[in-house]
Structures are given as structure tokens and as C-alpha cells.
Records
---
Amino acid sequence: MKHHEAMYIGGRWRPARGSGTIEVVNPADEQVIGTVPAGSAEDVDDAVRAARAALPGWAATPPADRAERLAALHGQLVARAEDIARTVTAELGAPLAFSRAVHAGVPAAVCDSYAALAREHAFEETLGSSTVLHEPIGVVGAITPWNYPLHQIVAKVAPALAAGCTVVLKPAEDTPLVARLFAECVEAAGIPGGVVNVVTGLGPVAGRALVEHDGVDLVSFTGSTAVGRTVGALAGGAVKRVALELGGKSANVILPGADLGRAVAVGVANVMANSGQTCSAWTRMLVHRDQYDEAVALAVAATAKYVPGERLGPLVSARQRDRVVGYLERGVAEGAKPVAGGPATPTGPGFYVYPTVFAEVTPEMTIAQEEIFGPVLTVLRYEDEDDAVRIANGTVYGLAGAVWAGDDATAVAFARRLETGQVDINGGRFNPLAPFGGYKQSGVGRELGPHGLAEYLQTKSLQF
């Protein structure tokens, strides 16, 4: 049990202004493992003031020097990788092997990529008789979710620092401990005081205060589409820029001629990763009618490997477990057939649900339209490619997806017809430089790589 009373503001650890606390619960055993301060609007104001005070010096720091600090931060993330993995496992519930590989490994790789981009990016360019300057937008309010707590922090803070911005970070209240660890890494990396500030707190209090603060120039938010609408509306009232990475209901389209066994196995693994708590998960598997029964059987067999408490962790909270169970019950009520798992939950402690595969799902069903955010796969049949495109594009979301075919050219031709921000072709690998973000109600803007860096820059042209 760790009771934390301080927040990282202006380069030092200082007590919160209020007396409220947030309990952090281990979702695997339902025990309280620590507390953090519940930051107030006054704490947010202190952090924004510190960020504004640090902005001129950091913005004037040469990009090569900013890159050195990011490289030092990368070194700290690598050095503390085991602490990071164990912290995420304790507060999120992810299996330790997954936390080591993904929750600790991916943020370090992303940080390293931005150290390189800070060195290489052309912050000035010549267009005809004009010199175009790409300058930091200012103070960034970063609000991050609980499902990939450190990755989402680094995906916002690292490009902001590379651009020359300063940051106030409000991490998710379910997973604040790794954010504190990140602040320790920032401090150890020698990043000047006030450049990165961390305020723990509740969304309706600290989060809203950050979005509405006059001293914040850009709000970068990752979370649900419903909350994203509120963030966008509040920021829009002040004509403040936003970057929103929101929900998804991504389609995994398996075309005739594809390696069906591999496509199904990889698709199931994608859905079950992080207990299904992934906004870009391929939660809708689309299979041609002639291969539908075989694909369902393969999916059931693949899902059997994900045993709750072993390869499959709990959901983050009782609230999230109950939300997922509600969707499972609705799926049954609307006529979908649970061929693996279902609404019943495992006995004993922990916020577990069974990994579930629904067959006989039609596109209009709730479980095929709404983001469930749990280990739930829906398998839908299609008649031909036009029908598959219609189904794949038939939700309000457009974040990610996958296409499998007998050759890459066929898969690419189909992927061009999808209304989504990122598509994996025949099992394409994660690329930390590729832009990530959505069409439609999946968000505004992009993260990762040079496109992610551009979100934190504004443009000035000098005419000669």
C-alpha cells in the first residue's frame, strides 16, 4: 500500500491543495494498493502557470537539445521497465508478460522515435519566396485513459516536448501510479522544471479545469467518444485546438483466398489482448458466407487458450466488468449466439469476464455497432466484397481494421474502400512512425510519427 500526497508541478513534488484522495484498486484481487491526491482546479491552475512559465525557455531550446532530453527520458523508461510493467499489472490487471512487452516496451520505443524526429524534423522550410516556420503551439493539456496508461502518456508528451511545447498531464484515475513513475523518469532525465507537470484527479474536476483553462493552447484527449464530444465542445468555445483519439468498432475482413486459419488466430489474439480493452481492437470479424462456419469453429478453438486469470487478465474495474456483462446480455437478447463464453462471470475475486465469441450476428445488433471494450468478438457473414464494405463501414466509428487476402494487392484494393484511419494488411506489424487516428466519430487528428508531431506545431510564413 502506497499513499501518495504530492503531485509533480514546476519541477518539484508538492502537496495537493485539497484533501481528497483517489483509491487505486488491483482489479485481479479487488484490493486497494495505493492512493493519490484528487487534484483540484487550483492544482490545475498551478500546473498551467508552471507550464506557461517554462514555455519560453523550452520553446527556444534547440531541437537537438530537446532530442537529448528525450533520449535521456527514453533511457529512464528502459532502465525502469520492470517497475513500469509491475505497476501497470498491479493497477490495470494485465498479465505481466503483456505488460513487459507492450505496456513498458511500446512507450519506450515511441519515446525513442520522437528523440530521432526532434533531430531530423524540418522546423523551417522554403516555399517559393517564403520561409515557413513550424513553431510550438504552446501549453498542452494532455488527458489520458487507463487502458494503455503509459503508452498514451508518452504518445502525447513525447511529441509535445519534441515540438517545444510544455505539458500538463492529467492521467486516468484508475491507473495513476504509472503516471507518477513517469514523472520520476522525467525528473531523472533532467527535463527542466515546469516543462512536464502531472496532476492526478477526477475527470469532471481536474480534467474539466484543464480543458477550460485559458492558459492551455491545445487539449489532447484519448477516451470515449461521448467524453470526447464534451471536450471538443468546451475547447471549441475558446477556439482552442483539440486532438481527440476516441472509440472504435474495427472490422477484420477475411476475403476468400486468405489464409483463414492465420487470419482467425491473429484476429482473436488482437481482440483478447489487454482483455479487449483496446480502442483499435478488431472486434468485428467479417467472413464470406461459404467459410463462415469454419471461421466460427476456428475462433472458438483459438479463444479457448485465453483462460481468465492466466492468459486473460481482469477488466479494470467493477464498473467496466458490469458494462461488458450488460453488452453480453443484450447480445443474447437480440438473438446473437454465444459459442464461447457469455454473460456468466467467473467465481472468486477479480473483475473477470469469460472471453466470448458471438456467432449469428447481424450488422444492426448493438454488439456489432457499439464499443464494448472487453474480450468480445462478433463474427458476421457477408455475401460479396460490396456487402463486406457496406458492413465494415456501417458504424459511426472508423479507427482501425484489418484485411486478409490471398495477396497484398487484393487486400490493399479492398482497404482503400474502408472508412478508417489505419488498416493492417495480411497481418501487418506495428509501426511507431505510422499515423494513428480515426475517421468519423473515432476522433480528430493523429498520433505517432511525424503526423503526431505536427499536431503540436503551428505554422508561420515569412514573406520575402
---
Amino acid sequence: MKLYLKGHDYKYATEQMLLMLFPGQRPEYPDTPPEAGEDSLALTLSRTKGRATGHAVLTWAGRRYSRFAWAADPGEKDRLERDRVLQRVLKNAFYRAGTEALGREPPWGALTGVRPVKIPTKALTRGLTLRQADAQLRDLYRVSPDRRRLALDCAQAAIAVRESLKPEELSLYVGVPFCPTRCAYCSFVSADVGKTLNLLEPYAQALCREIAAAGAMLARAGRKVRSVYFGGGTPTTLSAGQLHQVMTALEDHVDLSACTEYTVEAGRPDTITAEKLSVLRSHGCDRVSVNPQSMSEAVLRAIGRAHTPEDILQAWALVAEAGFPVRNMDLIAGLPADSEAGFRASLDEVIALGPENITVHTLALKKGSRLMLEGQGLPGPAAVAAMLDYAWSALRTAGYVPYYLYRQKYMSGGFENVGWCRRGTESLYNICMMEELHSILSLGSGGVTKLIDTGAGSLKRLSNPKFPKEYIQHIEEIITQKEEIVWPIS
């Protein structure tokens, strides 16, 4: 779609709304005016007499739609607040024109960000009531009733976790970017272990060196680890011996005396063995994930999984026998070859297994994934909406409550990913990561450390090399970077 910005240069905000309302369109910024009837948007910002006004003139499918939005002009004293308000009026004007053209409103209304829970969290922190925070989501952003309830539930969980944190605490992420095979929906830098088996041992050795450097740095800085999270990829792609090697390094070099939560994503059932689970338990891991994504054999084949539904059940039995206090299972709504009935059957089967946590993702067509290139056989937005509606009803009926959520680009239907739990089994790491409540120190290939200064409201990112081979080759520089980290006061 051709975009014409007048009186401003808020390209990113405009493109966010374009992506949400018209996901098949890509932005163009031509030098010449559009031809008559050509799909286009003219988005104008004017600021007069203390008021900021956004005006959207949208031409779509041969028809013209003109809509306004306005707010009190915040002036120039606070640039962040100014940009926030001006972008909101522009996005709301575009939203009103776009939804009239489409004849429908997205479930998250005019919200385009990946962390919608931050809005009600801030409102409740300022002293607003639940009713007032709900009205803000409704009136300013046009969020649907169901999504408002979801956001408010998660906001209350985030506030409870934040109140439990101490200034010196952080979370530790340990990345293992290997998987047995590459799923069709995946765009993460995860190496197919069948092609990179020779990297596993040198990767584990390099990771142990980074762990030692990180532990020394944390001790000097007086920092305490509140939660540990092994993610990937699939950490249990490592052998039992390699897992023991890495987890022993963590115990030897990092002070875990303040750690209240230790999670490992076992993830793929075809990597889970009784021996590996025994290693995890012996090193203090108390939370583990088994992520089937679907209980349908046809869907598993369509996404490139090498295991069967029976393998999932066998892996789950091993996890139950190992005695982990908190167990998670993941499902994805909108996978190829799936249907409303198929998703319902998968969810019912997972609920019957009794995990303490269930995460329901919505398929996101990510750049670099096979599905993004093929894009065939996918359920439509209406079918995905029905899957999620069923999930909400079935999970609440079964006693689960939502505790964290996030959104992604190219997500089917503009929906969300939601973590559900039995009360008292919320994942502190997931909440802190998504709501950016404290710093996250990330180790391993592709790790992104987030240094968060809660007092100043600032965030600094430090990235490790994305690819395992690069990570191994540059471990000396990575260790140096860890040693030079300057921690915010918080």
C-alpha cells in the first residue's frame, strides 16, 4: 500500500497498524500522488491550540474512507510522552478508517505492540481500579471484552511478581540452540542436530566457560539469580553427560542460593529419556516443559516433527515418574492440517494429562520459516478464533488462569500467545521476561542480555553471536563482554 505521511515521520507506528489491519500489504513511500482509486493512505498530523489531531484518508478496494482521532497535545517537555501521544492519535485515525473499510475490528483493537499487558499494569500501578484500567483499554484502544479481561488477569500476575523481587535479583537464561529437526513454523537460529552433531561437545565446553565468567561477574556486582531458564532450541538435545557438565558448571560458578525457580525446556518428546530427566532433577530443576504443539499425527507430520502422539505420552509418563513439581505443555492454534475439531481434541487430551502449566500459542508466520514460504493448508482467522475461544472456555473450566501473554508479528488473526497455570504455579521467569520487570542475563548462542534499570525506565541489550559455530569461535570476546558489564542500580 502506498503511504503518504504529512506533518510527521512516524513510519514505524504507521507500518505497525498497516501490518495488523492489512497483513498482506507492504509499505511503499512514493514521490508522486496516488492514481485515482489506487490503494493508499494519507496520514496527516496537525497540532493546534493544545490539541493533536490525526487524519487518515484511506482508499481501499476503490472506496475512500476519512477518519479523525485527537488528544490533548502534550507539548515538547517530555519527548517520550509527546511521541507516545502523537503516535496514538495517528494510529487511532488509521484504525478507524481501516476497520470501517474492512467491516470488522481486531481482537486487540488499535493495540499493535507485543506487550499489551504493560498498559493495564501501569494503570493499576498508578492507583487506577480494575474498572478504570478496563475502561482505558476499551476507550483508548478499542480492545475487545475478552482481551481486556485477559490483559487485566496477566497485569495482576505481573504486579504480584514485581512486588516479590529484590533490587539485586535477576534471571539467568541459558540457551541451547539445537533441535532434532527444524519445525516448519520455526525461524529461530536452531541447528538441526543431525547436521551439526560435531558441534554439541565444543558448544557445551564454550558454554561452561561463559557460565564461569558470568558467575564471577555476578559475584563482583553483588547480583543474585532469582530464576534459571534453559531454553533453545531444545536443551535436552544435549546428552545426559553434556547436561550434567553444563548444570554442574552452573552450580560451581554461580550463586544459586536465592534461586526459587529452575526451568528446563525439554520440549521435543523425542529428546526426553529417563536418564536426562534424572540429571535435571539431581541438579535442582523443578520445572520442565514437554511441548507437543499438537496431539494429531497428521499435524505433527505437516510441521516436520519426527515423533508421534504416542511418543508424547511416553515422554509425559517419564516426566511424571521423575517427580517434577511443575510441568508445562505447549500447543499451537492455527497449524497446517489442523482444524477446530482437531485442536479441541488436542487440548482436551493435554488437559486430561494434568500439567500445572499449559501454554497456548497462535501460529505466527515468521520470516525464514518454511511455512512463511509455503503458506498452504493453514486454518483461516475465523477457525483460529474458534480454537482460542474453546481454549479459554476449556482452560478456565478446568481451573487454569492466564498469567502472561505476548503478541508477535504475522500472527494469525492478530491474536496472542497465553500462558495458563494452576494458581500458585506461575512462571516467574516468563513474567519477568515478557513484562521486563528485572534484568535477564543471557548465556549461549543467540542470547540477548537485557540490562533493565527500573528506576530510570531504561533497557540496554547485549547480544551473543547467533550461530553456534560463531559462538564457539568468539567465546573469548563473549567472556570479555560479560566481564565488562556495568549493571544498572535498579
---
Amino acid sequence: MTVANKFGVLAEPRFRLLWIGRTTSALGDAMMPVTLAFAVLSAGGSATDIGLVIAATMVARTVLLLIGGALADRLPRRLLVGGSDLFLCAVQAIVGVLFLTGHRSVTILLGTAICYGAASAVTRPAIAGIVPQTVDRAKLQQANGLMELSRGAAQVMGPALAGVAVTTASVGWVYLLDAVTFLVSAITLVFLPLPSTRRTRGTRILKEVAAGWSEVARRPWYWVTLCGHAISNVGSSAFYVLGPVVIARQAGGAANWGMVSASMAVGALLGAATAMRYRPRRPLVAAHLGLLLSVLQLAALTGPFPTVVIMGSALVSAAGVAFANSLWTTAIQRLIPNELLSRVSSYDWLISFTVAPLGYAAVGPLSEAVGATWTLEIATAFAVAGVATVLLVPRVRQLRQTGKGDLHGWPDLDDRATDDTPATKDSACTTTASPESPR
């Protein structure tokens, strides 16, 4: 058995470096929600302060996301992500030292949250453009599946590690550990060679943001799909708001909700693992049929059903979402020219960040007005309508994929050259070559 067959996409040196860095960083990120709560409380804060700190991260990320996407298409992505990692390494190290020396305040944590949100607004669109530069197209879906699998594993391990670290050491040491994870990620990017790519130059950043919207607007299949995702996200939010309420009425209460959450983590791992091995002929159709599985967890709450049924439905739903995420990400990386990818992807992230909180805010008042069962049925209708909206788009149904990962079924795809570099003839930007490999 060759090395490539044994280790799959990890046999690719560039992707292996990126995967090590991002997986390490993801583990650090997964430790922070638990750590943050105890940090706020140890600084004399309350539950309201915890919410404010979390909201500060989301607001900063949302406000800066489109600018982050434009920067990632304008500057070398490797250096941009590496710089963000080093910045957050310094921020987390400073907070860790301050907490260890007794200088604790909610104000410090609010400032840290803003820094976190601003950095993630840059790194998320940039990473979307880096992954396809590290593997050939035949392994791109496997690469995205592995990235999704690693994030899921980090979400399982991170909170447990944080709980142990906070209990046995202190909050400050966890912040220092998170700083180390950012440093590891930055070091891997130093040694990550990337091929040359076309970059926008000579235009103002806001014009590049507007150009990104123009690219989204002239691809109806893309923006209609984003609208469908937004509708589905609104529906899915009901599970996370009403799930604990429904479970609390049963024997076991909070412990049972913990089991449901654990089953979702297992489901996400299974879905990502499936995406690594299964290459559907109609990738966008398969992705959104996977997304449709999210209705199972909503339906399970309308019961009454035993906790084990809710756990099973949550597992299958989470698997479907993880599978859908991997296929959707791969398709976008293949269909959007690389020099536009970060800006176009930033609109996808923006809709996800903006719409989900609206759903969370609406579910509670609606359930008080019409009852939990009616609210869940309305949420199910939203989830189904969102997927149906996407599947009604002809190009979504027409897109085909070969066993080697080649896409066809659209006239412009069938006419496009089939080399590893995405075609750039539909770019509306003035671009010049800019090498990203290390000096």
C-alpha cells in the first residue's frame, strides 16, 4: 500500500501542514466557551456579562466579515491568516498573564472578544480560499471532509479539556494554552508554500466589497441557495432553544440534554467521515438532502418521545448537516474563481451569522404565544421550505460530478478548461499575479 493510499489527503504535504495548524487552532477555540464563562465569573461578572462578551465577538465578526473577505482576496491569504494567528496569540497570552497576576475585569474580556471576532472575520474567508490551493481537485472533497471531522472532534474534546484545566489549574493557564495553539498554527503557515494566484490591486477596499456582491448577484444559483440556507437556519434554531425546555420536562433533565448534545457531536463526526469517502454524482442535491435531515430533530421534540429517540434523531440530523457542509464547501471552492472566493464566501458566512440569532430571538416569544408544538411545526416548515427553495434551482439539480471530482452539467463548466486552476475569465476585477510561497 502506498503512502497516498494509506493516509489519503494527509499524504499531500501542503494540506498536511494546513490541517495540523487549523486542527490545533480549532482545539484552542473549542476550549474558550467554557473558559470564557468561568473567566467572566472569576472577574466578578454575571450571566448578563457572559452574554455581552459573546455578543461582542459576534458583532465584531459580522461587521468586519465582508471587509475580511475583501482583504483575503487582496492580500496573500497565508500571511493574512498567519498574522491573525500571531495577533490572537499575543492577545490571549496577555489576558492569561493578567488573570494569573490578579488583574481581572470584564472590560478586558470584552476587548478580547472584539479582537477574536475581528480576527475570525479575516481568517474564515481566507481559509476557504487556501484549502483548494493545497490539494488537487480529486481530493478536495476529502480535504473538506477531514477539516469538518477535525472541527467536530475539537468540539468534543475542547470543552472537556477546558473544564479539567480550569478546575485543576486556573482560567489564566487556559488562555496561555490557547495562545500556544495560535502560535502553532502561525508556525505551520510559515512553512506552507502556496501557488501564485491572481490578486486585486489598485482599488479601494469598499469597492472590492461591492465587487464581491456583484459576483454574488450575477450568480442566481448562489444567492438563491444562500437565501434557502437562511430560511433553514431560522427553522433549525428552534431545536437549540426548545430542546432543553422539552428535555427538562422529562426525567433526567439537564443530564439528558447533555446526552443529546453528545449524540450531535458523534453525528457530526459520522457525517464528516462519510463526506471523506462518498462522492455523490449530484453533489449539491445530495448536500441539501443531507441538510433536510435536520427536520428529524425538530420532529422528535413534538413527541412526547423518549430521550433515546431524540438522541437518535439529533445524531442523524447532525450527520446530515456536517455532510452537507463538506459538499457545499467543496462545490463553492470548485465553482468560484479562487481570486474571488474569499469575498463571495464572506457573504455566505454573513448570512449565517446574521440570520441565526434572529431565529433564536424569535423562537421563545413565538412558543409562548402559540405553544412549543406549533412553534416546532412552523420551524419544520421553514427547514423544509429552505431546502425546497434550493432544490428548485435548475443549476443545483444539473450539476454533476465524476469519480475524479470533475464538475460538469453547466454549459460554462463544460466549456471551461479542466486544469487544476479555476478559470478566471468570469472575474470582473482587475488582477495581477502575486506569489504566496515563502521567501
